[in-house]
DNA sequence: ACAAGTGTTCCATGTAGTGGAACAGAAGGG
DNA sequence: CCCTTCTGTTCCACTACATGGAACACTTGT
């Protein structure tokens, strides 16, 4: 299936780093000639571009233009950015917006970074699992139970960044408690040295399609600071109208 | 080339309207069976999705996640959104951000809409020519001369929304005057009944990669209001640091 | 000047994308 | 309520075109 090749090539750029033909060829295990042709075509259509004078490629503007259509249909960023900035100024830690990608994953779409020198700074756009980290859990906990069970069914367990081991049962009880209290919390689950709190964001139909979370380095972003962050997130979630459409 | 088929299918969704297999098949003049397979694959990869219970498709979240990577590398929106809101509140008309797509075109990536009932509201994401409309001209006027000449070379002339006829020469003198005064102005070039003013946005290398413009309905957005808008845009362009990277 | 890396071009091979037709399922009207 | 007419879906023979490998060209660094 050629689309898979195309997507595989595009996914190589998820880290944001410009790549050459050979690097892409290695990461995708496709022949250099094949990669060259694919990249040329993607560039012709504006999905990749190369800095003038460089041989390296990076994601191009056509991607932005297409996604602008998708984004404008459910404009979480426009709706939430002013409040995210306000939250950052109030709490002092990085405020992040995550969007659900599919049944298994989400990605950080946007972040308003803390001004501290030591701060949380997420990788934008890279898919991450829903079952670890406060951004993902805040979404997963409020999805339909059937969907959550599907995800946890084929699940053998996973290790957190802190080295802790999570079984599907431990995740399930975690999610249930999140559902009860209304917010998620995590410490060193995906990012070593980081901790955070998050709340779900619902669309007009009441589906959890995104989450807003605040994360910071472990010593500084203390229990009490997290308590304040949770209160701020909750009051914000209440006042912000639900999105017009599911993404 | 299969990528063209994929892009053609994706481009059908540029208007933002959900589409069925048959509609896509008509717009792309591909066989229904072919469209069905392509759409299924695009959906499998998250580039399209269908509202639960509907047969219609629309752009999916994977597009957002990939473009978030591209967007985060040169975050015009994050940089400019607060100022765009401020501009909208000051001038009262819709403020728009356009990004250059290639040598011929740009697209509106973002708009902060006027509160007036009668207001400019652009189609987000749809590519538009650079040589008409204040958003495009503000970019084109400040591109390298060779590039502008390439665009105007194979140019036979074009009609504005008002019915006026523009030759490549008339566009050239227009662009030169824009370059001289530092801002662009247009009236009913692309949108009947609309008028606007715009300024270019440069990246760190000094290339014009985007534009910020303000547009409104003809009777209301008067000469004097446009004068104020230009002054506001210019002071904003001066204070806002140049972008870190070309898009 | 050479070596080791890169990107680029070419070609025989066979995978997989193609349109058409035939089928199924939903929607709408009489 | 049945029949018509749309949808979307599946299947298949045909062949276009994507594929990997090798050979070539170009850049970089030592």
Q: What order do the helices and strands come in, and which of them pair?
A:
2 copies of one chain form a homodimer.
Chain A: H1 2-11, H2 21-28, H3 32-44, E1 48-50, E2 57-59, H4 61-73, H5 76-91, E3 94-100, E4 105-112, E5 128-129, H6 134-140, H7 145-153, E6 158-159, E7 165-166, H8 168-181, E8 184-187, E9 194-202, E10 208-217, H9 223-239
Antiparallel strand pairs in A: 1-2, 3-4, 3-10, 4-5, 6-7, 8-9, 9-10
The structure holds a DNA duplex (30 and 30 nucleotides).
Protein model, in words:
2 copies of one chain form a homodimer. The first copy, chain A, has 247 residues and is of the alpha+beta class. Helices cover 43% and strands 20% of the residues of chain A. Chain A has 9 helices and 10 strands. Chain A has helices spanning 2-11, 21-28, 32-44, 61-73, 76-91, 134-140, 145-153, 168-181, 223-239; strands at residues 48-50, 57-59, 94-100, 105-112, 128-129, 158-159, 165-166, 184-187, 194-202, 208-217. In chain A, strands 5-4-3-10-9-8 form a 6-stranded antiparallel β-sheet, with helices on both faces. In chain A, a hairpin with a 5-residue loop joins strand 9 and strand 10 (208-217). In chain A, helix 2 (21-28) packs across helix 3. The relative contact order of chain A is 0.13. The structure holds a DNA duplex (30 and 30 nucleotides).
């Amino acid at each position: 299936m050629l689309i898979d090749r195309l997507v595989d090539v595009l996914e190589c750029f998820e880290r944001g780093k410009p790549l050459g033909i050979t690097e892409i060829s290695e990461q995708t295990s496709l022949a250099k000639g094949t990669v060259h042709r694919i990249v040329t075509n993607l560039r012709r259509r504006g999905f990749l571009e190369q800095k003038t004078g460089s041989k390296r490629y990076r994601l191009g503007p056509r991607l932005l233009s297409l996604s602008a259509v998708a984004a404008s249909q459910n404009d979480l960023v426009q709706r939430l950015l002013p409040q995210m900035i306000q939250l950052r100024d109030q709490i002092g830690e990085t405020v992040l917006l995550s969007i659900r990608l599919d049944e298994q994953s989400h990605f950080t779409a946007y972040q308003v970074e803390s001004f501290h020198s030591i701060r949380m700074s997420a990788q934008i756009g890279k898919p991450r699992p829903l079952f670890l980290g406060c951004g993902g859990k805040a979404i997963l906990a409020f999805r339909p139970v059937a969907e959550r069970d599907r995800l946890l069914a084929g699940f053998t367990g996973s290790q957190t960044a802190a080295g802790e081991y999570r079984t599907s049962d431990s995740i399930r009880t975690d999610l249930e408690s999140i559902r009860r209290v209304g917010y998620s919390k995590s410490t060193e689950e995906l990012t070593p040295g980081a901790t955070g709190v998050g709340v779900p964001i619902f669309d007009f139909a009441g589906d959890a399609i995104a989450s807003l979370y605040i994360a910071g380095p472990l010593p500084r972003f203390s229990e009490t600071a997290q308590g304040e962050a949770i209160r701020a997130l909750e009051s914000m979630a209440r006042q912000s109208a639900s999105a017009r459409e599911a993404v």
